[in-house]
Write a sequence for this structure.
């Protein structure tokens, strides 16, 4: 039984040496037993020239699947070295319709039609043409056409016979779907029932009609939420008349979930593009600079505010500038994060914005009063002037309450207008709260001191 | 065909009214066709007293499954209203071994043995006893014992017959596992092969030995990474001798992935406990206060530093305190986030800490020089004193570089010592960088001004 292989440094060095010396036979022996995911991992760890060489040595059947495991950029590069004919017959024909569609949609415009026309299997080509019509982030864009489908009027014996026929064209049997004469989805048939039932029973008598499906235009995140909520491994996709079109499997949806979670996390951390630690210095810089520029702008504004409030004659206010700024930022990010996560999990929907704000006000008051009391005590013990102690404590309470409400309100509002609420987290909230915190602090300070 | 139901406010209000008037028959009609996940959603949206009442009205078979869909706290509350006998016969006997084990492990210590001894199905009880020995966050802690297992020496006809027997005890057939006479896992049998092969062929001739398994002691995050990498829907679990023990399905692993992503996101946002926007004000406050206290402490330290550096006679340095503090925090969080995400995806392993730091230095220098140049230009245009412009620009460059290296180094080091690297993100990095940024800023300022 083949185990997952550890692709370690030693292995990669050995392989690099073999590539340098063109030892194709030895390389083939080394990689022939590897899982496609492992081969893909190797390809993304070595230089692009070596990757090209290695890719040529993989069996045709495996190489199409390896391609699907690679990052889009690497895949595009490797495909650009193949002719349209090779892409059609060696890659596309070895892929299921969803992956095949992804590959074709990534090709340069002028090449798409050409590759489509070169596919020898007509059914496969027309499936792909259909799928190309769906936006990538819909159920239709995620689904594959390959599935096992039986008619409700067949008996179990007929059913097994037909399934045998269909199974030869499907890589993996997930669920057996039952349709009526108009191809409308009626339900599913469990393998268990099929195995346990007499051969002459009609399918309609053992069909399980308790089946959840999604329309082809459903948003991909919503498909992920539905599959997750109902613990589904595969979900059928239907058109507006209920006709069975295809199915989506959990692995495709797991990618959606992961990407969504990563996107939110990156936004909260002030990273604007989807980058990984292995990306180039230039890509990483570009992904991070935009939020830094916002912070920079906020800092300049802050300097103006401090200048405006005559810091020269109220210099002791300077002591607690970092505290007020930091606390506003921290509270704002916390509040926004809880809203963003609630929206992502679909758990915020019954409560209105108003009730969320009321609750957040409660949390903010509790946290604010606690923090204010502590800071009042601490500054008194540390013998700061009493006026300053009062100013800092009051400002802190005001800033915490304000930042919390603002941190809740902004993502909820963005979401209402169909803008990604995660935009509101991270540096945006921090910067805005920095500025507003300073204004509150100095206004209270000037009033008291 | 049942569709996913929209559990909206109207529905909940109608239901609440029915509960208030004890209209049990009408409630039963309303919920009898609902999916268990929908019933669970309703239960978590209504008050706990109403939830109790509603829970009593659900069919026994369904109620056990509904329990598994609920948050741990709600489940514990509902279970506390049942006798040990009821838990054993109505709940445990209707659950697969993995869920049953979760329920029992959540019971109060003294009740565990009692419930175990009251389970009527001996095989089920001994499966659960086995599973209770595994830590929750291991492959053994995630697996279920129910599976379809055939011997390599059987022929396909025998195989179908045996499968029929086993299938009656297994809720859902995922994969057919092939073992030898010693119960050692040999491989899997695809349904497709079984359907397409003559009835007298021996299983060992059509078994697929290319099967990935995990040892029972494997860490749960690692199981999730393996299933994700190899696109697996179910993975078999073996002991150290390769004996088949159970299987883990993707839905359990998806929960691990989601929880992990949420935990990282919450840590980055300064939230210490796993909370949701629907939790109580008190829970939300408790989850957020710890990081605020750290920020508070940092702010006090900052006040001391500013006092120490004689701000009275260098009051213009106060202008850019917010800028320096904010930029240090932002850069630190960005750097830490990229490392944390890389570690979570298992993509950081070949590169050493040193090469990561070198790359981060490159990114930081690029960003730092850009930001410094901009701030130098801006402060010149805004006619700040030239000495202050130079101080701010130089400090900013130093702070950005330092914060980036620190933000990279800390999570990598935590990870090395098996501490969750996400701890290093969010308020921790922000606070430390605030303080160190201030020190750098004032040191440079005093040297130049």
């Amino acid at each position: 039984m083949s185990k997952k292989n550890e692709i370690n440094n030693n292995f990669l060095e050995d392989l690099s040496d073999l590539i340098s010396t063109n030892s194709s036979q030895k390389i083939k022996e080394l990689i022939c037993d590897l899982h496609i995911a492992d081969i893909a991992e190797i390809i993304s760890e070595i230089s692009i020239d070596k990757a090209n060489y290695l890719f040529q040595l993989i069996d045709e059947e495996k190489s199409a699947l390896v391609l699907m495991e690679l990052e889009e950029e690497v895949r595009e590069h490797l495909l650009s070295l193949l002719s349209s004919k090779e892409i059609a017959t060696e890659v596309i024909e070895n892929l299921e319709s969803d992956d095949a569609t992804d590959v074709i949609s990534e090709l340069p415009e002028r090449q798409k039609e050409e590759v489509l026309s070169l596919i020898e299997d007509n059914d496969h080509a027309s499936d792909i043409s259909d799928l190309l019509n769906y936006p990538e982030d819909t159920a239709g864009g995620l689904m594959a056409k390959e599935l096992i489908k039986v008619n409700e009027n067949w008996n179990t014996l007929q059913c097994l016979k037909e399934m045998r026929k269909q199974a030869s064209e499907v890589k993996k049997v997930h669920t057996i779907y039952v349709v009526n004469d108009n191809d409308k989805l009626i339900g599913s048939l469990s393998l268990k029932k099929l195995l346990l039932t007499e051969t002459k029973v009609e399918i309609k008598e053992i069909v399980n009609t308790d089946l959840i499906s999604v329309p082809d235009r459903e948003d991909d995140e919503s498909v992920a939420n539905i599959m997750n909520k109902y613990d589904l491994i595969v979900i059928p996709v239907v058109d507006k008349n209920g006709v069975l079109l295809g199915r989506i499997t959990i692995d495709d949806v797991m990618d959606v979930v992961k990407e969504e979670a990563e996107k939110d996390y990156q936004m909260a951390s002030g990273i604007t593009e989807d980058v990984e630690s292995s990306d180039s210095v230039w890509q990483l810089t570009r992904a991070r600079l935009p939020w830094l520029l916002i912070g920079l702008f906020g800092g300049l504004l802050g300097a103006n505010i401090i200048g405006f409030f005559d810091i020269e004659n109220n210099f002791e206010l300077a002591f607690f500038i970092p505290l007020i700024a930091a606390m506003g930022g921290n509270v704002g990010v916390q509040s926004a994060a809880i809203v963003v996560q609630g929206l992502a999990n679909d758990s915020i929907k019954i409560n209105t914005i108003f009730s969320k704000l009321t609750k957040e006000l409660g949390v903010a008051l509790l946290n604010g009063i606690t923090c204010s009391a502590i800071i009042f005590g601490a500054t008194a013990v540390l013998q700061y002037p009493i006026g300053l102690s009062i100013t800092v404590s009051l400002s802190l309470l005001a800033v915490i309450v304000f930042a919390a409400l603002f941190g809740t309100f902004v993502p909820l509002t963005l979401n209402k207008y169909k803008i990604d609420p995660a935009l509101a987290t991270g540096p945006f909230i921090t910067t805005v709260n920095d500025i507003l915190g300073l204004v509150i602090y100095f206004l209270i300070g000037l009033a008291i001191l």
Notes: DSSP finds 21 helices and six strands in chain A. Residues 9-136 of chain A form a domain with the MgtE N-terminal fold fold (CATH 1.25.60.10). Chain A touches chain B through 128 residues (CB under 8 Å). Chain A has three domains: 9-136, 148-257, 281-448.
